[in-house]
Write a structure and sequence with these properties.
Strand content: 15-25%
Helix content: 40-55%
CATH superfamily of the largest domain: Alpha/Beta hydrolase fold, catalytic domain
Order of helices and strands: HEEHHEEHEHEHEHHHEEHEE
Distance between the termini: 67 Å
Largest sheet: 9 strands, mixed
Structural class: alpha/beta
CATH topology of the largest domain: Rossmann fold
Number of strands: 11
Shape: globular
């Protein structure tokens, strides 16, 4: 009798089995286990234990690997979400890349409520590397990361290179880790406040009804605070917040080492290259790096959403066409070669 047939027979008799370390535990109704079945359990104990452990591994794998678009023959993409771990930020990109491009999201521990968030970039990368290896033991892959997930994707590629080929690493709006250290966080907050002041000052200067504008702004701020209070009570959003806090804290401690892979930096726009996010610093750690800039007016929050996501899908296809090409073709968008680093403007 095979293991599958034996387990099916036991299930039909309401016999429950589980692994407890190296022991096989059993719960069964009276007279459910015949002498023959008891003998089979004793004889097949090692095989049953191995089957149960692999089943647990598969369940854990499903929690980490989210098939956003599992079909197609192209090199599969394994993509890390942003600081809150939400992999569905890639859903629109998966649709635009088409049915022949497999894309799997990598969901970090802590979102399901069964595990605590990991607090080191290296540990998150090792967790994902084990999941990918179990899911797809062989063959090349593409590693992607969005926003803070870029750090995890970079480290993940470094670890996976010990076992397999990486076609390239795609970093979508990925700040350099210095952005998450105290000074970088302070500079980011000051920049946001200055932009907010500039926006409101411009609006007030142009509007005749300034009192109405201020009243509307106060209503909107009150609504935002109410939404934040509601989110704090929502268990799903609370878990996301914990993952976000852990990821940002991990990024503040991460010091990336050189990665012997090709890296493609996808920036929201050309302007984003010169912000406090310092994305171009990734280039110094790569075997080769290419930079693709999205359309003007695009920002980090909108780059993977409509209407801009189609532009980044096209840039990604351009990067994936031939990962062995080392020259940049001047296609009329101002491509410039800078030593072993390439910049492709992409959109204006």
């Amino acid at each position: 009798m095979t293991v599958h047939a034996l387990l099916a027979e036991l299930r039909s008799r309401d016999v429950r089995l589980w692994a407890d370390g190296d022991r096989l535990r059993c719960s069964a109704p009276a007279d459910a286990l015949t002498p023959e079945l008891h003998g089979e359990l004793q004889r097949r104990k090692p095989d049953i234990l191995e089957f149960l452990r692999s089943a647990v591994a598969r369940v854990q794998q499903q929690r980490a690997i989210v098939p956003l678009q599992p079909h197609g023959t192209r090199t599969p993409i394994f993509a890390v979400g942003g600081h809150n771990g939400d992999v569905f930020c890639y859903r629109a990109l998966a649709q635009h890349l088409g049915e022949d491009q497999p894309l799997y999201g990598l969901q970090p521990p802590g979102l399901d409520g069964h595990r605590e968030p990991l607090e080191r970039i290296e540990d998150l990368a090792a967790y994902f590397a084990a999941q990918i290896h179990a899911f797809r033991p062989e063959g090349p892959c593409i590693i992607a990361g969005y926003c803070a997930g870029g750090m995890i994707a970079f480290e993940l590629a470094r670890q996976l290179l010990r076992q397999r080929a990486i076609a390239f690493v795609a970093l979508f709006g990925a700040p350099f880790p210095s952005r998450y250290r105290p000074l970088g966080m302070l500079q980011g907050r000051l920049g946001q406040e200055l932009e907010r002041v500039r926006k409101h000052a411009g609006a007030l200067a142009m509007l005749p009804g300034r009192g109405q504008y201020i009243a509307r702004w106060l209503r909107e701020r009150k609504a935002r605070r109410a939404a934040e209070a509601s989110a704090a009570r929502d268990p799903v959003l609370a878990r996301r917040a914990r993952v976000e806090h852990a990821t940002v804290a991990a990024g503040s401690l991460y010091s990336p080492a050189r990665c012997e892979a090709r890296i493609c930096l996808f920036l929201p726009s050309a302007h984003w290259a010169h912000t406090v996010n310092e994305p171009l610093r990734w280039r110094a750690l790569a075997l080769e790096a290419r930079t693709y800039a999205g359309p003007e007016g695009c920002d980090l929050n909108s780059m993977l959403r409509e209407p801009h996501v189609s532009a980044f899908a096209e840039l990604f296809r351009r990067a994936a066409q031939d990962d062995q090409v080392t020259r940049v073709r001047d296609d009329g968008v101002g491509a410039v070669q800078r030593g072993r680093w390439k910049f492709e403007g992409g959109y204006s």
